[in-house]
Design brief:
heterodimer, A: alpha/beta, two-stranded antiparallel sheet, B: mainly alpha, 2 domains, globular
């Protein structure tokens, strides 16, 4: 199959929240924290438009609109804005983001999916997350044991137990996250759709390409620390093992895609 | 507030007649204006009806405002049709968009009249999906208001403040994920 990049809703949304400095009379434009990273991937997709490497489904589009609605709803409630004044402004902001999303979606291939096949796949994906959750509940506490093995002359140098506990928590952060932030139905559907599309691509084009999901959602992509090399990637690895899909952050997806092409 | 189903019927009849005769009837602009006025009144009521939940009132307001803006685009396209050589293309395009606005209106108006109605999450989702479909078609037919149209008449400081809040909240949403 030809390698493709499946855009997740948070990547789409992050690349849509941007207002130029001219529009707000500021020196710098206003943008989402992940705007640059996500926009960079879209720029890469745009440069390779003829190859049609970026894909999306209607579930992702609707999910992105739903998230935008929830966030605006939260904004209206939390900040106590006045209805008479702020309904109009927030409606404009909603539509500006919607238009920017549409401009990005134009670079992507809208893939239709077979809802029956997707529904059947959701069951096995839900099971995978349940297993991960169980694993998170029964993780062994290894920090104490590791601390015991520190040579006695080094014991006073650091709080080893705290350090090992942090390392341990970080390495398992993806599955520990499931305990207080369970995976939602939309994520299950998105992964099921990706799995369905991968099967279709494999059967029609052969098995020699990759399907990437470009996301910032830690139910899919690894959790990384800026200062260290530790990663929490148990779910990401399990998705790759079971469904053959590579889930990564937008920038890493672009790098992996380029590296894959240069090897070939 | 009177129901405007009749105004929609008038618009549909005129569009059908224009399609048959292959020429534009300028009187349709007045029918569009009537609908726009009606939608605008609903928007005002959404703002003033404080007994309705804030988020529900906003969604209804947003849907009506977005639909009205598409109607305004259709109406101005009819005015400019001769100059832009869109006679009778604009009729075909309007026949794609107006029925979607009518669908949206029929979905929303019973909820609007029942002020005690609280939108369920599936109702919200259905309204948003239908609005997305309407905007998809408006985009295909070049009747979707542009970013510049949306920014018109809004203070830069207000735009900055609302986008700032939105960007912060969206970041929090993604970070939580």
């Amino acid at each position: 199959m030809k390698s493709r990049i499946f855009i997740d809703s948070c990547t789409l949304l992050s690349a849509s929240v941007f207002v130029s400095n001219k529009d707000i009379d500021e020196e710098t434009p206003l943008k989402h924290k992940f705007y640059e990273e996500c926009k960079e991937l879209f720029t890469f997709i745009q440069r390779n438009l003829a190859k049609r490497i970026g894909i999306i489904t209607s579930t992702v589009e609707n999910e992105a609109i739903g998230v935008l609605d929830r966030v605006i709803e939260g904004e209206l409630k939390a900040r106590g804005y006045s209805r008479s004044h702020d309904f109009e402004i927030f409606s404009r902001v909603f539509n500006i983001c919607d238009i920017k999303m549409r401009q990005l979606i134009m670079m992507l291939q809208r893939e239709p999916v077979d809802s029956v096949d997707v529904a059947m796949r959701i069951y096995s994906i839900r099971n995978m997350y349940e297993e991960m959750k169980k694993r998170a509940k029964s993780l062994p506490q290894v920090a104490k044991a590791k601390t015991k093995s520190v040579p006695s002359r080094l014991k006073s140098v650091l709080n080893w137990e705290a350090l090992y506990a942090w390392q341990d928590r970080f390495t398992h952060s993806q599955i520990l996250n499931l305990l207080y932030n369970p995976v939602d139905d939309e994520d299950l559907i998105i992964l099921a759709e990706a799995s369905h599309l991968k099967t279709i691509y494999n059967s029609t084009e052969g098995k020699n390409g990759n399907l990437y999901i470009a996301s910032k959602d830690r139910h899919f992509v690894p959790v990384r620390s800026i200062r260290t090399t530790y990663e929490g990637r148990e779910i990401t690895d399990e998705i790759l093992r079971r469904f053959g899909i590579i889930c990564e952050h937008p920038k890493r997806v672009k790098d992996l895609y380029i590296a894959e092409k240069s090897v070939k | 507030m009177p129901n405007r189903t009749n105004s929609f019927e008038t618009v549909f009849n005129k569009l059908n007649e224009m399609e048959r005769s292959q020429s534009i009837d300028p009187s349709i602009v007045e029918d569009f204006k009537l609908l726009e006025k009606h939608f605008s009144e609903i928007e005002k009521e959404c703002v003033s009806a404080t007994e309705r939940k804030l988020e529900d009132a906003f969604l209804l307001f947003h849907v009506m405002r977005s639909s009205r803006m598409i109607l305004e685009r259709a109406h101005s396209r009819f005015i400019d049709a001769r100059e832009r050589h869109e006679n009778p293309v604009i009729v075909d395009l309007s026949k794609m968009v107006v029925p979607r606005i009518y669908d949206m209106y029929n979905l929303v108006i019973p909820i609007f009249h029942d002020k005690k109605h609280v939108l369920s999450s599936s109702e919200r989702s259905a309204i948003l999906t239908r609005l997305k479909i309407l905007r998809d078609i408006a985009s295909t037919t070049s009747m979707l208001p542009s970013v510049d149209d949306e920014k018109k008449g809004i203070l830069k400081s207000e735009l900055r403040s609302r986008f700032h809040g939105l960007a912060d909240s969206l970041q929090a949403t993604v970070d939580e994920e």
